[in-house]
Amino acid sequence: MIKVLAIDHVVLRTENLESMLHFYRDILDCPVERELPDLGLVQLRAGTGLIDLVPVDSELGRAGGGPPRSDGPNMDHVCLCISKVEESALSQFLADRGIEQSEFAERYGAQGHGRSVYIKDPEGNVVELKFEIEDSIN
Questions:
Q1: Phi-psi bin for 74: left (phi > 0), alpha (psi -120 to 50), beta?
Q2: Judging by DSSP bridges, how do beta strands 41-46 and 32-36 pair with one another?
Q3: Separation between Cα atoms, residue 129 and residue 86, nearest integer Å
Q4: Cα separation, 54 vs 14, whole angstroms
Q5: CB atoms within 10 A of CB 125
Q6: Beta partners for residue 42, in sequence order
Q7: Would you write out the chain's pLDDT as a tens digit for each of its 138 residues?
Q8: CA angle 8-30-85, nearest 5°?
Q9: Of 62, 79, 91, 112, which one is least surrounded by beta carbons within 10 A?
């Protein structure tokens, strides 16, 4: 249902690696590309970019300070460019998996204006799913 097309990378610090892997790998279909367990890093392929998951108790995670908190998220949001699908089908796909979502709206991004929806991952990070713009300047 969801095909992520583009992002460079984003690093997310996590207290629950398994729930984050389930969300990004199994629901958003971002496969694990590389793991560096000695450092505490799992890299998932998201189209042309990467999502790095770093457990807070790992070497890399400890370098970032304390764990993410609800009153001080570790990231505002990450925007994933996805292949265009029917809004209603995507909305139903997310709802069937218990994922709350915002209303679809026209928003500006790297490819210009396009339709997108906001969701949250298991630790409250905001993920914007923005439809690919076929006539983009890229």
A1: alpha
A2: antiparallel
A3: 13
A4: 6
A5: 21
A6: 35, 53
A7: 889 888 768 888 898 999 999 999 999 999 999 999 999 999 999 887 888 898 989 988 888 777 877 666 676 689 999 999 999 999 999 999 999 999 999 997 877 888 999 999 998 888 999 998 875 444
A8: 90
A9: 112
The secondary structure of the chain as a DSSP string is: ---EEE--EEEEEES-HHHHHIIIIIIS---EEEEETTTTEEEEEETTEEEEEEETTSHHHHHT-SPPBTTB-S-SEEEEEE----HHHHHHHHHHTT--B---EEEEETTEEEEEEEEE-TTS-EEEEEE--TT---
The type of residue at 39 is L
**How many residues can be counted in the chain?**
138
Q: Provide the pairing of β-strand 77-82 with 126-131.
A: parallel
Q: Which structure tokens are listed for 20?
A: 């984050």
pTM for this prediction? 0.72
d(CA 54, CA 114): 31
